[in-house]
Amino acid sequence: MTRGKVSLAYIAKDSARKATFTKRKGGLIKKTKELISLCEIEACGILFSPYDLEPEVWRSQLKAQQVIQKFRNLSLVEQSKRMVNQESFTKENVEKIKEKVTKKRNVNQ
Amino acid sequence: MTRGKVSLAYIAKDSARKATFTKRKGGLIKKTKELISLCEIEACGILFSPYDLEPEVWRSQLKAQQVIQKFRNLSLVEQSKRMVNQESFTKENVEKIKEKVTKKRNVNQ
DNA sequence: AACTCTATGGTTAGAAG
DNA sequence: ACTTCTAACCATAGAGT
Fold this sequence. Notes:
The structure is a homodimer. In chain A, 60% of the residues lie in helices and 10% in strands.
């Protein structure tokens, strides 16, 4: 079980890579939240991955949230400029993505 | 050693809180970097803490870096608007902070 | 205060369902 | 492909310096 050390190299096998991504993403979010409550700081993480349509963002408090919102609005425009070959970030998707983000945010807290 | 479970409440004692912050910040950065190399994703973390003058940012690759740069430029302006009672984020500090960020970035990779 | 050490609790890779 | 389990590796609180 587990590995005989940490290799830290790219995991070539698709299913294993996705499994590890999902688990470790959860771990990172948990650790971030822990640090936030232990030290009453503001923190967030941002993940761009092929496994999520939108960048994954988690954060602590209202101010960070507002800053991230601005970042996100900007980044989506930036991405739509840069990712000319990638359907999922064309301008017509921006509004849909924003909507999802708002919903998710309401659920998270 | 360690505690008899994880409490996850705010650490009231200043020195202990700072020590934990420093250790856990390091842990988060390490975990983020691991996830980045294991899965070849782009990720970053952003920390606003009383222990650092500027928000702490770590990231993976060029594109994330560019996006973060935009985010940072925005956030500094936002912060200077909001933190009217806090000297360290007045407008005259913005350029100085940007300079430090650029230096740090060059060192990091 | 900042670094090292290390027992303990926490995270997670791989297996099993 | 997701969930749960758990051995084994890892992070870290508190102690020592």
